[in-house]
Design brief:
Blueprint: H1 30-35, H2 39-44, H3 59-69, H4 72-99, H5 101-170, H6 172-179, H7 186-202, H8 207-231, H9 238-250, H10 255-278, H11 300-326, H12 334-357, H13 366-406, H14 418-441, H15 454-486, H16 498-526, H17 539-574, H18 589-606, H19 650-660, H20 674-694, H21 700-717, H22 724-740, H23 750-759
Helix pairs in contact: 6-7, 6-8, 7-8, 8-9, 9-10, 9-11, 10-11, 10-12, 11-12, 11-13, 13-14, 13-15, 14-16, 15-16, 15-17, 16-17, 17-18, 17-20, 18-20, 18-21, 20-22, 21-22, 21-23
Organism: Pampusana beccarii
Biased composition (Low complexity): 39-51
Subcellular location: Golgi apparatus, trans-Golgi network; Recycling endosome
Length: 760
């Protein structure tokens, strides 16, 4: 067999070689024999059973092929070559075995030790797992015990609170009996009964609670009887009368009956004061043949003074108490009060006319003039009272707006928006102002004799109504609104919410545009000025005050919102270790929060102000590269077009670049549009970030984190600003400052920065 196979080559089949006289191909290299043919060669070559190095080698096929194709000389040569190769392989095998014998022995020992160690580790892991299971079981038991203890503690606290409430309910009759006794504290008894009444009514079906309620009702019924008896006392003062009626209303007495008793008692008191004034006058129709009319008991000044201070003052006090007590009750409308006051006022004017008719002499009229002046002052005081009522109404409306803004919103349910609150506030204030003008207009009715006199009508219409009421209220409104932006809140008092500042700014702007002109025109129509009247405040002056208030409020809104965003950025910079931070993999959460807050502010401002004008944006604003080196700070490798002959200070280059760049005014006044407001807030926020970065020392990864955060802000903030160059310029300064403060300024590849920001 060896003789027959002597002529075959190492390559397998007897293929002719490249040289003359050589019919065999040289063997493949060692690497090819080790790794085998490539996948492409294997796929292209068909299975060859005669290939001695192939996976499909068949000895019988190979020998038959060699015997049939090769002559005897080639067979003998092949036999000798195969023998040499076999002996060489055996020698190499022995050498390899001798050289690595110690290694084989060491490897065997190592494997044996590893098996032992592995078994020991398995045992330790089993023990550890058992311990962990025991710890987990113990933790579960401890957690269950803690939860049970917490639950029992909560139940115990609830039981203790319930016991305290029950104890307080049991003590209610005793407290009511002590406080409702004659000469005690009935107001305190009413407060105690009001707190317990709802609970007692709810659990009335229980016998114990029914007994407590019945006893309490009996005590309060006795108190109501004593209060009604006191209400019939004719010597009761107006203040005491109001307190008595208020307590009866709290006891759920019928408002209609109390209203009638209140007016009856007030009427008796006012009738007595009118009777005292009438007693000083002679009879209106003296019988014929009597002596001359005796002189009055007091002079005209004393008569008018007592009438204005006693009768008019008491009437105003009782009217105010009536409105505060019975406002909202359907059976006690304002019509009763108006008819009641009109009847008594007409009688007072009749007595005043009769007393003035007694002044027939041609002597000294100084007392008469002073008396008329006192009466006129009472009229001007009435106008001032209307002004205070308007101011109180406006403050009440502001309180309602603040409450609506601060009210919690349940999920899925939205409250009134800013446009609705603005419309309600503006309509309410304007409606109240028109109602007050209608009340004051009664003094200038045609059936009033003195209303047609020029010296009264001119001064009253201009000085009292237009200037003293309307203009004074408009100026007070602007000052009050502006005070939210100028005066700091009192200690302990909450600051004005930003939404209120925005709403008041829009209100003042609307007043400047239309409301001031409308109100002054309406006033001039209802109270026309006379020729020769003093100069009036022009509408342009009031409009300027309203616009100045709106500007101050909007600027303060920008500062407040910018300070809120800046505070987040400042805390995020100051509390981070920029030297020891890890390589950035995400955008920091505070940057996402900044974008969310700016978006919310954009929605809020857009409800009340127009969009505004933006500078034409570039097509790649959101993809603009954000480098930690600005054009003035880039070293030579980032600016190959410029190679200085000597080293140059990059900080000096940055300062030179700033001289030729456009200056960004951070706290400039904003315009009345959404884009300008958002630009101001963004400038304050990014300026704060810049100043905070300038005070920190950064490592390489800290610089790269600033690079990632800045690029993320650039992606989203440019669309809110009026000019994207403002955002880009401030972010470039942030990056330049970070690079200047960095110990190892190696920036991150821009493609990686984009990937992180897109993923974030």
């Amino acid at each position: 067999a060896m003789a027959e196979a002597a002529g075959s080559g190492t390559g397998g089949s007897p293929e002719p070689g490249p040289g003359p006289g050589s019919g065999w191909r040289r063997p493949h290299g060692p690497l090819q024999r080790y790794y085998g043919p490539s996948a492409a060669e294997t796929a292209e070559a068909a299975p060859d059973p005669a290939d001695i190095n192939g996976p499909h080698f068949d000895p019988e096929v190979f020998l038959n092929k060699v015997r049939s194709e090769c002559p005897l000389g080639q067979l003998l040569a092949r036999e000798a070559a195969l023998g040499r190769e076999i002996r060489a392989l055996d020698s190499d095998m022995q050498t390899l075995l001798y050289e690595n014998y110690n290694k084989f022995i060491s490897a065997t020992d190592t494997i044996r030790k590893m098996k032992v160690d592995f078994r020991r580790m398995e045992a330790e892991m089993d023990d550890l797992a058992a311990n962990m299971a025991a710890i987990s079981t113990s933790s579960a038991r401890v957690s269950a015990a803690l939860q049970d203890r917490h639950r029992r503690g909560a139940q115990l606290a609830g039981v203790q609170a319930l016991l305290r409430k029950l104890q307080s309910l049991v003590e209610v009759p005793g407290r009511l009996r002590r406080w409702a006794a004659p000469g005690a504290e009935p107001a305190r008894a009413l407060r105690c009964h009001a707190r317990a009444r709802a609970v007692l009514r709810h659990y009335r079906h229980l016998p114990s609670f029914r007994a407590i309620e019945d006893e309490s009702q009996a005590i309060m019924a006795e108190l109501a009887q004593r209060l009604r008896a006191r209400l019939r006392d004719e010597t009761l003062e107006p203040k005491e009368l109001s307190e008595c009626v208020e307590m009866l209303l709290q006891l759920e007495e019928p408002p209609e009956e109390l209203c009638q008793e209140f007016l009856s008692h007030a009427g008796a008191r006012l009738e007595a004061e009118l009777a005292a004034l009438e007693a000083e006058l002679p009879p209106a129709d003296p019988p014929s043949g009597t002596a001359a009319t005796p002189p009055p008991a007091s002079d005209i000044l004393d008569f008018v003074d007592r009438g204005s201070s006693s009768f008019v003052g008491t009437l105003c006090l009782l009217a105010t108490s009536y409105r505060s007590l019975f406002q909202g009750h359907p059976g006690a409308g304002g019509g009763r009060l108006e008819s009641f006051a009109a009847t008594l006022t007409n009688r007072y004017f009749q007595l005043l006319e009769r007393r003035l008719a007694l002044e027939r002499g041609l002597g000294d009229t100084s007392l008469l003039v002073r008396a008329l002046d006192r009466f006129h002052r009472r009229l001007r005081a009435r106008v001032q009272r209307y002004l205070r009522a308007l101011q109180t109404f406006f403050l009440g409306c502001l309180g309602d707006v603040r409450q609506a803004l601060a009210a919690p919103r349940p999920p899925g349910k939205e409250g009134p928006g800013l446009p609705d609150l603005l419309a309600t506030l503006a309509a309410s204030v304007l409606g109240q102002l028109k109602a007050v003008l209608a009340y004051v207009q009664l003094f200038t009715a045609r059936d009033v004799a003195f209303a047609s006199l020029p010296y009264f009508k001119g001064e009253f219409c201009v000085a009292a109504v237009r200037e003293g009421l309307v203009v004074a209220f408009l100026r007070w409104l602007c000052r009050t609104a502006r005070a939210f932006a100028e005066s700091p809140p009192e200690r302990g008092a909450p600051a004005a919410p930003p939404a209120l500042l925005l709403l008041l700014a829009r209100l003042c702007l609307d007043y400047e545009a239309t409301t001031v002109s409308y109100v002054l025109t309406l006033t001039d129509e209802q109270f026309p000025p006379q020729d020769g009247d003093p100069a009036v405040t022009p509408a342009a002056e009031l409009c300027a005050e309203a616009r100045a208030a709106a500007q101050r409020l909007l600027d303060h809104y920008v500062q407040v919102q910018g300070a809120a965003v800046a505070q987040m950025l400042r805390k995020s910079v100051e509390t981070r270790d920029w030297l020891g931070t890890v390589e950035p993999r995400n955008v920091r959460a505070v940057m996402k929060r900044v974008v969310e807050d700016i978006t919310a502010i954009d929605v809020q401002v857009g409800q009340l102000f127009e969009e505004g004008v933006r500078r034409a944006q570039s097509s790649d604003s959101s993809r603009r590269a954000f480098s930690v080196y600005s054009s003035s700070r880039a070293p030579g490798r980032y600016a190959p077009s410029y190679t200085p002959s000597a080293p140059m200070d990059t900080h000096l280059l940055s300062n030179i670049q700033k001289l030729f760049s456009e200056r960004i005014d951070i706290f400039s006044p904003v315009e009345f549009n959404k884009v300008s407001v958002l630009t101001g807030i963004i400038k304050i926020s990014l300026k704060t970030l810049l100043e905070c970065v300038r005070l920190r020392t950064l490592g390489r990864f800290g610089l790269q984190q600033v690079q990632v955060d800045g690029h993320y802000l650039q992606l989203y903030l440019w669309r809110f600003a009026a000019d994207e160059r403002v955002v880009q310029g401030l972010l470039d300064e942030v990056a330049a400052s970070a690079a200047h403060r960095c110990l190892d300024p190696v920036p991150m590849e821009h493609s990686v920065v984009e990937l992180i920001c897109e993923r974030g």
